[in-house]
Amino acid sequence: MKRILIGLAVLAALVAGGLYVMRAQIATAVFRQAVAQGMARDTIAATPDGLSAAFCGTGSPLPDRQRAGPCLAVIAGHRLFLFDAGEGSAETLSLMGLSPARIEAVFLTHFHSDHIDGLGNLALQHWGQAANIEPLPLYGGEGVDRIAAGFNEAYALDSTYRVAHHGPAVMPPSGFGLVAHAFTIADAQESTVVLDNGGVRITAFRVDHGPVHPAFGYRIDYKGRSIVISGDTAPSPVVQRQATNADLLIHEGLSPELVGIMEQTARAQHRDNLAKIFHDIVNYHTAPERAAEIAQAAHVQALAFTHITPQVPFGALEGPFLGNAARRFHGPIYVSRDGDLISLPATGGMTRRNLL
Ligand SMILES: [Zn+2]
Ligand SMILES: [Zn+2]
User: Fold this and answer.
1) Is 73 in the same domain as 24?
2) Are 98 and 18 in the same domain?
3) Residue tagged active-site, from 42, 49, 84, 114
């Protein structure tokens, strides 16, 4: 018995030693496998016909390694649309198996920096990953042309290097950058249809994020399924009206209690500027409990929070973030994480999984 044990120990040591000596080859083989799987991944093809919401950025302007800046992708059949493009959007999309080259158009809710600061890399990836010959369409309210022109100018030199280095067949100059499509909502209206073709209808509606004007939410309808995105807003009756009977309401959420802790801490450390900012942000965002009331009044099927403020780095903090939201909305409530995919198949039902 003792000899067998010694023999097994020697064998284990030899195997471990062999693995250690071979570690470079093993790591390269694992890498080769991961690259093949990553490049072959196509989340759109793997998603049932219907509407899906892919959370490519569930964070806010506060620094957060777990949550990229605001970004929501909507898959409608085989089409891909993006709503906002905060820092890290293109990277998170790629990690979710959603190529930025497939994006048909980006719709901005408003021009706060955290919603646009991933646009530069997003447009570059849209161009470079598939030799797109047309720039990435960027929809938004009045002022969106300045956003597109600014990013195009900032990336103009980079674009010349890319064309020179890879050649115009790989980087067609006509596909560089962003092209703006501005829309307005007439004073007497609260919404306007900004895209309606191939069975997909996207409606923009006015929300309450003053002093930020314009500020919009969006409703997406396809094959009888519907997703409503609040954008950044204080509690808004327009969101409630637009979300009426929607399948999924994706609402921003800011916990006044948790942000209050940050304000008090900043004040105690004599960081008055920071304390004032934490104080100010509460009144143009929505507490999760209020969003839950809106979801309940609108009779939506499910409520998913995004633009999570402040950071909610571990599951046990989701309860304090939500407060009494679960008492005010009787359907499922999700504190979304980057990589979440909520699918609404045309045939009915709802599924949720994480792609990261
Ligand atoms: Zn904002
Ligand atoms: Zn924001």
Assistant:
1) no
2) no
3) 114
Cis omega (within 30 of 0) on the bond before 173?
A: no
Q: Does 89 lie in the same domain as 28?
A: no
pTM exceeding 0.90: yes
Distance 164 CA to ligand 2 centre (A): 37
pLDDT, tens digit (0-9, with 9 covering 90-100), for 63-105: 999 999 999 999 999 999 999 999 999 999 999 999 999 999 9
The ligand whose atoms approach the alpha carbon of 58 most closely is 2
Residue ranges, the chain, pLDDT below 50: none
**Residues 169, 81: one domain?**
yes
Q: What is the C-alpha to C-alpha distance for residues 89 and 314, in angstroms, rounded to an integer? A: 22
When divided into structural domains, the chain yields a total of: 2
What's the token pair of residue 161? 């290097």
Tokens, residue 42: 């196509």
The residue range of the domain holding 290 is 48-354
Question: How far does the centroid of ligand 2 lie from the alpha carbon of residue 98, in Å?
Answer: 23
217 close to 231: Cβ distance less than 8 angstroms:
yes
State whether 18 and 167 are in the same domain: no
Note the pLDDT tens digit of each residue in 234-266. 999 999 999 999 999 999 999 999 999 999 999
* Active-site residue flag, 338: no
- 132 and 16 fall within a common domain: no
Query: Which two tokens mark 6?
Result: 């010694």
Q: Are strands 333-335 and 302-309 parallel, antiparallel or unpaired?
A: parallel
